[in-house]
Specification:
- This is Glycoside hydrolase.
- It comes from Pontiella sulfatireligans.
- The protein is globular and about 80 Å long.
- The protein has five helices and 21 strands.
- Strand 13 and strand 14 form a beta hairpin.
- Strands 1, 15, 16, 17, 18, 19, 20 and 21 form an eight-stranded antiparallel β-sheet that branches. Strands 2, 3, 4, 5 and 6 form a five-stranded antiparallel β-sheet that branches. It has a four-stranded antiparallel β-sheet with strand order 7-8-9-10, with no helix packed on it.
- The protein folds into two domains: 47 residues, no CATH class; 322 residues, 5 Propeller (Tachylectin-2, Chain A), CATH 2.115.10.
- The chain starts with a helix and ends in a 6-residue tail after the last helix.
- By secondary structure, it is mainly beta.
- The structure holds 3,6-anhydro-alpha-L-galactopyranose.
- 3,6-anhydro-alpha-L-galactopyranose (AAL) binds next to strand 7 and strand 11.
Length: 413
């Protein structure tokens, strides 16, 4: 027995000794040789040419837009951009209030609690995608009391379906983390309106005790397999580390006014914040950012319900609204996108006053090959590292210094 084992060990040693080092020219097929776990993954989960060979990988580059900056005017959470008769259209949360958000406790009928409180849905058009002209009035106004949404309507998602236009949005009667928030819909024959509020909720929170029992946020419509899919972020009324925080689900319907039937598999995305789903090939792709274990990834699903991580991305746009026409044509040949609008909180995330819309460009499209957007190794200047949210705050520094003696053991003991 001992002899047999030592014989086998000897054969294995010879085999390893004869094994050539991994070649410099990347084999395009998975080589038939012992591979480390990392190299197995390169072939099984990624592709041998890494991000360069990944159509669902991109960097994002940002440009300022010409929307007028005014005190207490906020623009955020844009829809997808659509193009009709040569004109680009976008809708977004618009707040024009007497003062900046004062927090939930101090909010009044005229003082907003948050950046998206006391908001309406605004519309802007552009002939080139760079210069935008905002309408003088909101496209969709908050409905009067007691209709749902009388406090704020925000975070719209657009759907183009059978020649008509639909805007889905969050509809609050009271604003706040634990307030009921269904999704309502308004419809129009033209992107220029006029818009009619549908009197019923389009999507409602899930049953008591379940993952999205108080809020349905960020409705994001996609047409897939001849049906309307609306993706959304859900949140339960309960808060605490034992509860889900931000996951995303999907609901299906053949009628844009509903009823929508929630997927039995919900949540279908375990991470993310704002939703961004788009048609890709014969399935649905999702840009998942900010929260959760799969934050900052692009994912793909053949059926809209079972997503797989396809790439890991950096500095993704916040609340992206891509220009992505194939998302509504239902042809099963989604081509992706090269640009869109997103929002930025100039104060670094708190949105204490006004958010702004910005443009992003990228290569998440099957129709172009822009090497510039496929690069890795993004590096940033010193200001990036020492800005609020990235620099070590003084209080945390104090705590670190207090525990330093206990934690920083001698290297040589
Ligand atoms: C957004 C969205 C939802 C949230 C808030 C307004 O970016 O995630 O809409 O409720 O922030």
């Amino acid at each position: 027995m001992t002899k047999l084992i030592s014989g086998l060990v000897a054969i294995a040693c010879v085999a390893v000794a004869e094994q050539k080092p991994f070649p410099a020219v990347i084999p395009t097929e998975k080589p038939d040789r012992p591979l480390s776990a990392a190299m197995e993954r390169l072939y099984d989960e990624w592709n041998p040419h890494e991000d360069r060979g990944n159509e669902l990988y991109s960097n994002f580059k940002y440009s300022k837009l010409n929307f007028k900056r005014e005190a207490n005017v906020s623009r955020r959470d844009p829809t997808k951009v659509i193009k009709v008769d040569g004109v680009y259209h976008v809708w977004y949360t618009g707040r024009r209030s007497e003062c900046p958000p004062v927090g939930l406790k101090n909010a009044t009928d005229t003082k907003p609690g948050t950046d998206w409180d006391l908001a309406d849905i605004w519309h802007a058009t552009s002939s080139d995608g760079w210069n935008w002209v905002e309408d003088a009035e909101p496209a969709v106004h908050r409905p009067p009391k007691p209709e749902q949404g009388n406090r704020s309507i925000c975070t719209p998602g657009v759907l183009v379906w059978k020649g008509k236009y639909y805007l889905y949005f969050q509809a609050y009667n009271k604003i706040g983390g634990q307030e009921y928030c269904p999704v309502r819909v308004a419809y129009a024959d033209s992107p220029n309106g006029p818009w009619t509020h549908h009197p019923e909720n389009a999507l409602v929170p899930s049953p008591a005790g379940s993952w999205g029992n108080i809020k349905i946020n960020d409705p994001c419509p996609v047409v897939h397999n001849g049906r309307i899919l609306i993706y959304y972020k859900g949140a339960p009324i309960e808060r605490g580390s034992e509860y889900v925080l931000r996951m995303q689900g999907v609901a299906f319907s053949d009628n844009p006014l509903g009823p929508f039937e929630a997927s039995k598999l919900n949540p279908v995305i375990n991470s993310g914040h704002e939703t961004c789903m788009f048609a890709w090939k014969d399935g649905v792709a999702a840009l998942v950012a900010l929260d959760g274990p799969e934050k900052n990834t692009i994912q793909w699903s053949p059926d809209g319900e079972n997503f797989k991580v396809m790439s890991m991305i950096q500095i993704p746009p916040v609340a992206p609204g891509p220009f992505c026409p194939t998302t509504f044509d239902g042809k099963g040949d989604g081509r992706g996108f090269t640009w869109g609008l997103c929002h930025i909180n100039p104060d670094g995330g708190g949105a204490a006053n006004e958010s702004i819309l910005a443009r992003f460009d990228c290569d998440l499209s099957l129709d172009v090959d822009r090497e510039y957007f496929k690069r890795n190794n993004l590096r940033f200047n010193a200001d990036t590292y020492f800005q609020k949210g990235v620099a070590l705050p003084p209080l945390v520094k104090k705590q670190i210094i207090q525990s330093q003696k206990r934690l920083d053991k001698e290297t040589v003991r």
